[in-house]
Amino acid sequence: MARYTSLFTIAVSIDSLRLLLIDLLKSCQFDIIYDSGDYLVARETPGRVSYAKLVTVEVLIDRFPTTDDEVRMNFVVKNEELPLKVDNHCRQVFNQVNQAIAENRQWHLIESAAS
After folding, report:
1. Which one of 46, 66, 70, 80 has the fewest beta carbons within 10 angstroms of its own beta carbon?
2. What is the DSSP code (8-state) at residue 94?
3. Which residues, 6+ apart, have CB-to-CB distance to 33 below 8 Å?
4. Cα distances (Å, whole numbers) of residue 26 to 34, 84, 108, 113
5. Is residue 65 over pLDDT 70?
6. What are the contacts of 61-67 at 24+ separation with CB within 8 A?
7. Residue 45 DSSP one-character state
8. Per-residue pLDDT tens for 96-105?
9. What is the pLDDT, as a whole number, of residue 35?
């Protein structure tokens, strides 16, 4: 199973974050399949790759207790594909999502870390 994680700290209003995040994931060809407010799951839209390569994104949203406009988001991007190549489909989608988050003009990126 391919699995990649990243952690982002952004400056954005918590009230607008959820909608901005849903729009961002939809722009990356994901369908939202679960949303509980502070936890979101999205799956890649079928049709471009085989079922085993379909990527799932899990997002855990953690608001800092010290400020109202800083939010930490933990992303897990995974699929059932064995990562036999360094540049596999899951890694490509992971890079696409990370780039979309970093370049989003609706918030200010404070810190990011990927593994």
Report:
1. 66
2. H
3. 41, 42, 43
4. 13, 28, 20, 23
5. no
6. 61/17, 61/18, 61/21, 61/37, 62/38, 63/14
7. P
8. 999 999 999 9
9. 94
